[in-house]
Design goal:
5 strands, mainly alpha, 4% strand, 66% helix, 3-stranded antiparallel beta sheet
Length: 430
């Protein structure tokens, strides 16, 4: 309403002025270069309007010519922005799908359209490294070194190339220098510790990680606790670093048994049982430095007390209690726990133990064994899947460090991770 009123008032004023001037045109005489020009006010206004229009037209044309390079650049940038966004979408799709060849092409397009050296070079470096193309990775590393804010990334990239080429001496040199510049960096410290661990230089491995702290990094703290214990330090102090390590837990149980403190050893078993659910823990408690049958019976009673609330939690618990009862020569109780295990879940250990107690007691006989019994569970390497009877810190097959896990962990992983890692094909920076 206000705008309409304003337009009406302006139109009225201008119309009134036009009528007033047309009724009173007046006379205007101009003498210029001995020439006399006679006109009226309307003519003067018309000439003034033409001059003003011409001047504005010249200014507009000059501005367009002057801004032509800038406008062309803006149009190019707008075009590149559209193309760059399309390439970014395509890169994200190919990253998810693991299409390495397309990743490299999309990264080059991003570099062209956005002029971003860091992001595109990192993608190109990772792609080259993932394809084992070390010469290309070296080329992209040089580019990373030329970017001031990529100093840390280029340091890690050079280390990754050395590790990929299995040049461990060079990797140790680079990691040692990097550790001085980035004291407290977990990635650098962990990589250095793992290389020393592969060479079984436990003290050097421990020195690499002992000053680094991250309470939220479970895997790093397990590695740290293992190296602390393997370096000959007090195993109870190792437990304070991390109580998630099965090696440290077993060594602590042994130490408690050595100092004749079976109560604390049993409590440690109970505290950690659900965490590991591996017979190796209980096997250590019921067999390590056993003195006589009375000692075995005492340990069995302590074990029952510690695992009372877990007695029906898993078949592994039932088998462990059955084995403990067998060591204590309580044949009937051993049979009871074995019978609680579903026949469908019997493995070779259950059959062997049943055979042993049937030989010890005339009242017990081996029931019909299922046709397809499961093999004895074994530890396995997360990296190469090599199988082991006992836990090992180093994998004999692929030299991986602290990657041997119990099958129970595998089943948990399958239940909780509903999707495979979509970036499993991409080289990891950590």
């Amino acid at each position: 309403m206000i705008k309409a009123l304003r337009f009406f008032v302006l139109t009225f004023v201008l119309s009134y002025l036009a009528v007033w001037i047309s009724n009173r045109p007046g006379t205007v005489r101009i003498v210029w270069q001995e020439y006399l020009v006679e006109t009226n006010v309307i003519g003067v206004l018309l000439v003034f309007t033409l001059i003003l229009f011409s001047l504005l037209l010249l200014i507009f044309i000059f501005s367009k010519i002057k801004n032509l390079p800038r406008n062309l650049s803006s149009a190019k940038k707008e075009k590149f922005l559209i193309l760059g966004n399309e390439s970014l979408d395509q890169l994200a799709t190919n990253l998810f799908l693991g299409n390495k060849d397309s990743l490299e092409k999309d990264s080059l397009k991003l570099k062209k359209y956005f002029g971003n050296e860091l992001f595109s070079t990192i993608i190109l470096f990772n792609s080259a490294l993932g394809n084992n193309n070390l010469s290309s990775a070296e080329k992209y590393l040089k580019t990373l070194r030329s970017i001031p804010k990529a100093k840390y990334i280029s340091t890690r990239a050079e280390i990754m190339i050395s590790l990929k080429a299995n040049n461990l001496d060079r990797a140790i040199e680079l990691l040692s220098n990097a550790k001085k510049d980035y004291e407290g960096d977990i990635w650098i410290s962990e990589k250095l510790a793992r290389i020393y661990s592969q060479r079984q230089e436990w003290k050097l491995a421990w020195e690499s990680v002992k000053s680094v702290d991250d309470s939220n990094n479970k895997d790093f703290n397990i590695l740290k606790a293992n190296l602390h214990a393997m370096s000959g330090n007090n195993v109870f102090e190792s437990l304070k670093i991390s109580d998630q390590s099965i090696y440290v837990t077993i060594e602590a149980i042994k130490q408690y048994i050595k100092i004749k403190d079976l109560d604390k050893a049993a409590k440690l078993v109970g505290k950690n049982w659900l965490k590991y659910n591996s017979f190796n823990v209980i096997d250590t408690f019921i067999r390590f430095e056993v003195i006589n049958n009375a000692d075995s019976l005492k340990r069995h009673k302590l074990l029952l007390k510690s695992l009372k609330k877990f007695s029906s939690s898993s078949d592994e618990t039932k088998f462990a209690l059955a084995q403990s009862a067998y060591e204590a020569k309580i044949w009937g109780e051993s049979q009871k726990y074995l019978d609680e295990i579903s026949r469908d879940n019997w493995d070779e250990r259950v059959v062997n133990l049943y055979e042993n107690i049937s030989k010890k007691s005339e009242k017990i006989s081996l029931p019909k064994v299922p046709e397809n019994i499961k093999p004895t569970p074994q530890w396995y390497c997360q990296v190469c899947k090599a199988r082991y009877v006992d836990w090992q810190f180093l994998c004999d097959e692929c030299s991986s460090v602290d990657k041997i896990i119990w099958p129970k962990d595998e089943s948990i992983k399958k239940r909780t991770n509903l999707l495979e890692n979509p970036f499993r094909h991409f080289p990891k920076m950590k």
